[in-house]
Amino acid sequence: MPAWHAVEEGYRELVERFGYQEIRTPLLEPIELFVRGIGDSTDIVEKEMYAFEDKGGDHLALRPEGTASAIRAYLQHGFQVESPQCKWYYLGPMFRRERPAKGRYRQFYQAGAELIGVAAPAADAEIIDMAVQFIESLGIGPVRVLLNSLGGEQTRPLYRKALVEHYSKHEQKLCEDCSRRLERNPLRILDCKVEGCRALSVDAPSVHDYLGEDDREHFDEVRRLLDKGGTPHQVEPTMVRGLDYYTRTIFEVQAESSALGAQTSVLGGGRYDNLVKQLGGRATPSIGFSFGIERLIMVMPESTHKEQVPLVFVAGVGKQSLDRALDIARTLRRQGRRVEVAHTGASLRSQLKKADKLGAAFAVIAGEEEAKRGGATLRNMTDGQQIEVRVDELSARLEELR
Ligand code: HAM
Fold this sequence. Notes:
The chain folds into two domains: 2-154 and 212-304, Bira Bifunctional Protein, Domain 2 (BirA Bifunctional Protein, domain 2, 2-Layer Sandwich); 311-401, Anticodon-binding domain (Rossmann fold), CATH 3.40.50. By secondary structure, it is an alpha+beta fold. It starts with a helix and ends with a helix. The longest helix is centred in the N-terminal third of the chain and has 17 residues, at 121-137. Strands 1-5-6-11-10-9-7-8 form an eight-stranded mixed sheet, with helices on both faces. Helix content is 39%, strand content 22%. The protein binds histidyl-adenosine monophosphate (HAM).
């Protein structure tokens, strides 16, 4: 949990500095949203969604990701009209029926950010920089930032044609899924993990030979801005990513660690300039990313885990002493300290043992003798040293000793 809290709190703190606001969307959405948004020939939609018909006959799915839901909310609640530019972030569970493996779960937690309504390359560079800054802030390293462009309307029909021509020559070697994809969505073949298809993809045409002028300029400008800002990245010309809504810039952050097994991708994102239109709105260029919280935790060093506030244990032996212990605990908690207190006046020995087990940094012993002088014993649990302190000075003494 300290690791989860470090990721979640660190993320909120960072993205809020960049002007993002939190959005919370439901876990269930109409299945149609993901079919139309993510694409019906993607692995997520074809094989991995948890979908069912509810008692009213509606077809629903547990959300496999957050982008489609964010855009659904953007359109449904009139943002496109009222405030077309939105900067949103989210955290929460997502569901994909994948084969479970190290770093790959069927319920996993994602956090992400969406910058809706900005077309300029500066938006791409800023969001990539924000993602990389976040990963670095967790002490994760070394990482690789992979970048590619899938082009837009100028590029895609030409590139699609080139891919169909290439794979058609070896159609009989394609897996069953990819044979189906050949006409419907040949870009997906580049992402297929089956050995035979991978072999055919080695000399598949590169998107960079087909980028239209505007798409090329956009990509070059994103790279120039990343270089200028000192964000390390490398172009990965064969990367396509697994969702159909992407256009132009796509990116991924990969971490090398045996803890992750084959799942090296910790964060992924890209531009989706057609998604808003596809879901029924006006054309609204947008870009975003998300990351798996479990995967980050598996690769982040323990030193980044959220530091716990020191614990104070208040002990009292006998009824009167226990009453005072409860009073002292109440006061210290109201002053903002993290406090545990014994609820039964068990022997001092057993209470101190408990304090030790809980990892308390200090114990306050509300002894009868000290009480006569308005005091209590303050014990440093690390070295066992004890001093008598006036109760009204306890908080100040604890502060000095921190
Ligand atoms: P994605 O690449 O499908 O992108 O997922 C993003 C991240 O979620 C992955 O890099 C990985 O860390 C984590 N992840 C995905 N599947 C699993 C799993 N089964 N178990 C554990 N972690 C997993 C998206 O979801 C897009 N919505 C990103 C985006 C936002 N693009 C634009 N805006």
